[in-house]
Amino acid sequence: MLRRVAAASPHGESYAERLRARAEEAAQRDYAVSSSEWDEGLTAVAVPVAGRSGGLIASLSASGPSHRFPYEAVEHFATDLTDAASLISAQGFSHPLSPTH
């Protein structure tokens, strides 16, 4: 899947290994950051949303112009998004196509 995503990116198929490394980094810190990877001057942060079974069912993200998204802001957004994702998970949100729905 990473090869398909990389091939569709402005960086080409050789970008797959970098995407793999970025995914591992995101898993370790529990949020993902993209800064001018797809769109120049755009930064985004995303967090996972867990379903009733604990599996990933969605994500929450925030994005904006990079000049308004310094690294300190990314950390604050990640914390706020993580809190919101926890609230959604605690309410029992599940995806309509999940096997337990």
Describe the structure in your own words.
The protein has about 100 residues and is α+β, with helices and mostly antiparallel strands. The chain has three helices and three strands; from the N terminus they run H-H-E-E-E-H. It has helices spanning about 1-10, 15-30, 70-90, and strands at about 30-35, 40-50, 55-65. Strands 1-2-3 form a three-stranded antiparallel sheet. Strand 1 and strand 2 form a beta hairpin. Helix 1 (about 1-10) packs across helix 2. The longest helix is centred in the last third of the chain and has 20 residues, at about 70-90. The chain is globular. The two termini are about 25 Å apart. The relative contact order is 0.14.
Could you spell the SSE succession in H and E letters? HHEEEH
Strands, count? 3
Question: What's the alpha carbon Rg, rounded to whole Å?
Answer: 15 Å
Mean pLDDT figure: 82
Keywords:
single chain, 101 residues, alpha+beta, three-stranded antiparallel beta sheet, 3 helices, 41% helix
